[in-house]
Amino acid sequence: MKCKVSKILFCKDVSRLQDNFYSVLGLTEECAPNEIRKAYIKKIREYPIEKYPEEFKKIRKAYEILSDPDSRKEYDTMSKYGDEIRQLEAEGFSAMDEEDFQKAITSFKKILIIEPSLHNIRNQLGLALCYDGELDKAIAQFRKLIEMQPENAVYQSNLAFACEKSGFVEEAVFHLNEAFRLDPNDINIMYSLYELHIRNEQYSQARNAIENAILSKDNEGFHKFYYLFKLVEIDIHERDKSSIERSFARIEELLENHPEEKAYVAREYAKLAYELNEVMMYDWSKRLTERAIQLDPSNEDIGELHNYTSGNEELIRENNSLSKDQKVLDPLRHAAGLYIYGSSMDEAEFDESVEVMLHNCRYIAKNQPEETISSIKRLMIKYPAIYEARKDLFSDVMDQAMVSKREHEQYDQMKNDSLITNSLKRLIALYLSDFEQDERERYFDDILDEMSYEQPNKVKQGIDRLKQKYPDLYELNPNFLSEIKKKLNDARPSSNTSSYNTSSQSSNSSSCFVATAAFGSPLAMELDSLRFWRDVYLKKTLAGRLFVRFYYKVGPFAAGLVKRSPLMKVLVRKIVWRILEKLEAKYSINTNLALKRKGDINRWKNV
């Protein structure tokens, strides 16, 4: 809804008069209202229009201004304070243009202090307050104006504008109806009422308002065309094809009586065709552009629109078949449907649907590559219009599926390749899986733990073979594989213990669950000694291997208990240090650093 600015009557007519109206009628400023008419009759007898046309005009103007109480008050005010009011008025309008509404409010208020009866200035004040967000104050100003001039359609419209912004929809409707009753020739009033109903999805009320406006017009010209096209817009909102049919029949009937409006009707048909196309009513969209071309064949824009709507007809035909074609995977059919019908969704719903569609397309490309490739080839051959419309997407999915197909083919060969270590095979299988993140991380830790037990040269050899013979599998995570190889190349063993410590850096804390929980870090020196004992001695015997396997099963649970209890942490540390002392004595394992750390900790505790 748009607000309205009424004419500033006194600035246009009164302030520019060179003659004093009281002097023209032979009166003083203190004269009574009944004296004005007597003076007017006397003057026009002295100066009849036939002999003195210019003098008669001045007399008539003076009488019109002074006989109306409001305009007389404005005239008197401008006679005394004209320069000051004009200055404030100019400042106010300039501030409105610059959207400095606070400054405009101040200027208009100053004028009303001088003369509260200046209705046009009060109207401007109400608008400035409304634009500044002071809606209650704006409504108060407009209501005061309507009390003083209830038959003014502009003030009724502006009050409706403020009421709608405040959420008073019913009151806004009432005042717009009043405004239209007062000025039925103002098409903007009906447009505001129509838009208000549409914004609030009050389609039946909008229809009634337009129908009443049509009935109120005796002439059958531009106004009726305008209102009939508004009815079509309501039909589109309601997606009522039968009502659209009836509304267009009324337009065509009216056009027979007003052929001079052909160009206008053609343009309106084209606008509606575009809107119908946006809401996927393609059959009507095409019909309207065809009719618009008949009415105005020279309009190139209408011709282009017709070509556009005709192109969509082929998309619709193909999509009707595609929606039933079970040989094309669902995510690809979903992509086609979104392209054609997506504009009917609101923005949030559309964005969510696109995200789901893209996720599903990635999924089928990765896990069903052959079916995906077959589906896209079918789209290319059987549904060319749809394929061309979404060619970028379908090409990307095809590329992903081709890569996935090669990955699966290479994996089938690689899993039987004896030169690839088991940890690398498991790692590649993990990359190709669709596990959830937490499950993926758990398997990843276990795979790295297994890799730390394998011979470094065989792991490096396996990585090189992956890169050369199974390049698509290597490209699943080339940076990580390259980093593993680099660490293995950089490792330089100087003793049994140091050799293990270097390779174990890539081992996860899961290998020593309880000790990690007790010492707070997998990098603690005590854990290095325990790992060395496990790999060099325990795993060499059957009993040791059984113990390690049992420990891996119960270790995570026990670690959870230790992590939650400070007392358990202290007890486990003491047990570990006791074990390290025994290991040093029995196996000559170098645990000096760890035991020295024990002594440092104990001394710190005793301070």
Rg from alpha-carbon coordinates: 44 Å
* Beta strand count: 0
> Which CATH class of the domain at 1-131 applies here?
Mainly Alpha
CATH architecture of the domain at 1-131: Orthogonal Bundle
What does this structure look like?
By secondary structure, the protein is mainly α. Among the domains are: 1-131, DnaJ domain (Helix Hairpins, Orthogonal Bundle); 323-408, no CATH class; 417-490, no CATH class; 510-607, no CATH class. It contains 33 helices and no strands. α12 (203-216) runs antiparallel to α13, α25 (456-469) runs antiparallel to α27 and α30 packs across α32 (566-587). It is elongated. Residues 6-18, 492-510 and 592-607 have low confidence and may be disordered.
Write the layout of secondary structure elements.
Elements: H1 9-14, H2 21-25, H3 33-46, H4 53-67, H5 69-97, H6 101-114, H7 119-131, H8 135-148, H9 153-165, H10 169-182, H11 187-199, H12 203-216, H13 222-238, H14 241-257, H15 262-278, H16 282-295, H17 300-322, H18 330-341, H19 347-367, H20 369-382, H21 384-389, H22 391-414, H23 422-432, H24 437-451, H25 456-469, H26 471-474, H27 478-490, H28 496-503, H29 513-519, H30 525-536, H31 542-564, H32 566-587, H33 592-606
Helix pairs in contact: 3-4, 4-5, 5-6, 6-7, 7-8, 7-9, 8-9, 9-10, 10-11, 11-12, 12-13, 13-14, 13-15, 15-16, 15-17, 16-17, 17-18, 18-19, 19-20, 19-22, 20-22, 22-23, 23-24, 25-27, 28-30, 29-31, 29-32, 30-32, 31-32, 32-33
